[in-house]
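Self-study notes.
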Amino acid sequence: MTHVDTPSALDRAVACYTAMQRHFYDARRKLYREPGGGPGGFAFLWPFSQALAATVDLVALPLVRDRYLPDLADRLDGLERYWNPDSRPPAYDSGVRSWRAGGGDQFYDDNEWVGLALARAYQLTWDAAAIQRAWDVFEFVISGWDDDSSHASPGGVRWTRAEWNQDRNTVSTAPGALLALRLHEIHGEETYLDWARRMYEWVRSTLRSPEGLYWDHIDPAGKIEETYWSYNQGTMIGAGVLLHRATGEARYLEEAQETAAAALEYYARDDRLDAQRPAFNAIFFENLLLLDAVAADPRYRRTLRDYAERTWANQRDRETTLFTFDPGRPPELLHQAAMVRLFALLASD
């Protein structure tokens, strides 16, 4: 199927990516720099993961695939600068590591975003090193599963390995289910499917609100932080779709549709979608279109298109094609990568 918005969406995705590379990228080190970054002034893993995902999104578009394959290879090379082989299990640090020091605390959600991008990269390129790292990331993720029976609602994946926080979050558990399902699709091992069910059901039973949306996290004492972030809705939608695809069980698809309907209704009020971080919305729409592929609803792509058009018109510097969302703050890599992703989604089938 070809959409009428495909040509302009592709042009805009490429323009956003070109601006991202020109403004943030250090080609010699194959890393991104930005003010307020991590060690050495390099971007933290979270924005790097979204720049990696944006590059994968472009490689997934047939019209520009060959142009961006070398860039994807560079992203994978740069990603290794975050890898900590000495932790047990090994995982990506939150910042770039040097020969003198580590890269800071490790976060389960950061590693999951990387793992998801690596699994997609493997499906596009058959890069054996990429899928090996995705396997490694999943081993790290399950090491963060909370089995402390003294905690309220035992289970869930902790947000960080660091001892200063023991919250279990939607954002550290639902993407873990998504990663498990992607690995199950690739290799068919039932262990991945078992973990996906376990993670999905914990989030659904612990952090689903009466409105049918997902709260942010629960602490060991049982206090729930009730913010509705768009990416949390998205990852649970995506997990439901992939569970349906893996099992054939209709309820997972129905639950994904219920979450999508509740999210669209909630974010349509009072410009709430525009108040979310663009990276959160890119993840939300990525999973909403995953649902659209199996249970089409014109609202899904229309909402994405309207949001992307508003952002292009209102947040973009017309000379640089850089986006700013916070008055007084310079452009951020995370925002720019999100805009690449949003327009690449619009350009996709």
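Second protein, same conventions, sequence then structure:
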Amino acid sequence: MRIGRAIAVVVGIVVLVAVVFTGYALLTVTHSGDESLAQPAGAGTPPDLTAQMARGEYLTRAADCAACHTVPGGAAYAGGVPFKLPFGTIYSSNITADKETGIGSWSDDDFVRALHAGVDKDGRPLYPAFPYASYTALSRDDILAIKAYLFSLPVVHAPAPANDLSFPFNQRWAISLWNAVFLKKERFQPVPGKSEAWNRGAYLATALGHCGECHTPRNAAFAMKHGEALAGAELEGWKAYNITSDKEHGIGAWSDQELIDYFSKGHAAGRGTASGPMGEVVEYSLQYLTPSDLTALVAYLREVKPQQGGVPEHAPLAATALPTSASLGEQLFVGACAGCHLDSGQGRQTDYAALTGLRSVRDPHATNLTQVILHGTQLDVSGQRIFMPSFGRAYSDAEIAALSNYVVGHFGGQQGTLSASEVAKRRITK
């Protein structure tokens, strides 16, 4: 009897909590509390729609919308891009003006509410894989310029695939609780005493470009740890490196020009070459920023609180000899890699093939290096296409582990720790 009563009490509490949270969800998504939505009829109508759309195109690129809403080779902004998370897969939505599968029936207020409060046209919570936790800081004018541009593009009928999430992450109503705890619905405000360039860079990095969504570690609830802003994180099998002002673990030792080169060209000699998700950011977004915005972004990053952690700029050399498998790795490198990368690591036909100085080759776990070897990489920037083929099908897990460990040892001076079993896991993270 006592056990039965205890079970009944527990069930009752669970039901009560669910009812309360559901009520809270309905309340918060229906009444977002966003004062910027309260405008008279006709307010915000642009005097020059053409100019607004042109500005919206620039902002849409700066916000990197294409990387998440365009499948490679597919229609622009038609959605369907999969995001593999620890608890399942989420697919991006169609943000063309299609009225059935896109946002064609969304009003200005609907669109603003989505970016400020994280809810769709019908008031349903959006998953924070959509970076509304950062976009909430955007101005209404910028959001409406983005909408004007998106509505000027060809309409595409493309329903998004159904998300595949495990319980309880498939319960959308619970996201309202997440929002109550972690979503700070505030617009960006310039910091007094900071330069105009710094404030512009802060807006680009924290709101429009949402750098923290990838480069900031997350807590157990998958919310950004703001006390560790831009200290580096790992997602979908890739490392988003530390980009704080720390000189050893971040980008504090990079020159202004090196940072601008990396953002605008995807490559900074002796520092790094963008690939994977960061390559997409350069290709779809950063290369289109104006020189003044690039300078502003650098000005802001220069003053981001330094944080340690991640792959250091000057990692100590390995104290022990390379493992016996290194001979296999060397054979593979000479046979398949040296033609482009050279034994010196300087790169034969392009600077993008250089290996010396890269963080990816100083990482004993070879995280990003392995992803490039497995899946290849490509980057369309400044009118040229940088391409490296994938070797995932050509080599076994053991061979790729040996090759990665050799590159880490030969060019990064580190003791590679990658195993064949780890390579097998990384094959399925792409």
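Instructor comment on the second fold: The chain has a mean pLDDT of 87.
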